[in-house]
Amino acid sequence: MFIEQPPEFVRKLYPGAIWRMDPNEKAVYLTFDDGPIPEVTPWVLELLDKHNIKATFFMVGDNIRKHPDIYQMVVDGGHRIGNHTFNHIRGFEYLSDNYLANTDKANEVMKTDLFRPPHGHMRWGQYFTLKRHYKIVMWDLVTRDYSKKLRGPQVLANVMRYARNGSIITFHDSLKSWNNGNLQYALPRALDFLKEEGYEFKLL
Ligand SMILES: [Zn+2]
């Protein structure tokens, strides 16, 4: 619960960051973190296409450097891009100048006004500086598809339990989510479930 659906006091740590969209609207907002990579991202794109859904991909700059063609596939698909630093670094472990430099470096290869901090945390100094340049997008529901401790059905259960109006939902187009089979199991079923529940899929 604490992880899947962050409680209010956690959300208040970053005032002005976006955790959830309009709670009165029957819509969800899909996001995918940590790509783009050839092993996973094209599979996600194909599935989204099949459902005619647009999503936001918070990308690691270094992955774009390594896989510019996959980055282009995402852009050409009409999806939105967000900055997730160049090396997927943890804010608490970096001096602010270095953290911000890594973020700037990422934006040289993607150009976006959205930012999501890896691991969901930043120092306040980092946050308030970034907030001047980006919309900071967190999440209302993290599926934990990356977890080695969870199996696909549990990841799907997280979506079924915590998705609600305006949820920003986080999956990962990463090898962690892929190699444990969680993404392949949970994502197609989650899309079917959300559709059946009547949610519209909107783009941030
Ligand atoms: Zn990440």
TrEMBL record:
- This protein is called NodB homology domain-containing protein
Signal peptide, first to last residue? none
PROSITE patterns documented for this protein: NODB
Classification lineage: Bacteria, Pseudomonadati, Bacteroidota, Bacteroidia, Bacteroidales
Pfam families noted in UniProt: Polysacc_deac_1
User: NodB homology domain: from which residue to which, for each copy?
Assistant: 26-202
Cellular component annotations (GO), alphabetically ordered: membrane
GO MF, one example:
hydrolase activity, acting on carbon-nitrogen (but not peptide) bonds
Highest taxon in the source lineage? Bacteria
Species source reads Bacteroides oleiciplenus YIT 12058
Q: Which InterPro entries match?
A: Glyco_hydro/deAcase_b/a-brl (IPR011330), NODB_dom (IPR002509), Polysacc_deacetylase_ArnD (IPR050248)
Q: Which UniProt keywords apply?
A: Hydrolase, Metal-binding
Which biological process, per GO, is one annotated for this protein? carbohydrate metabolic process
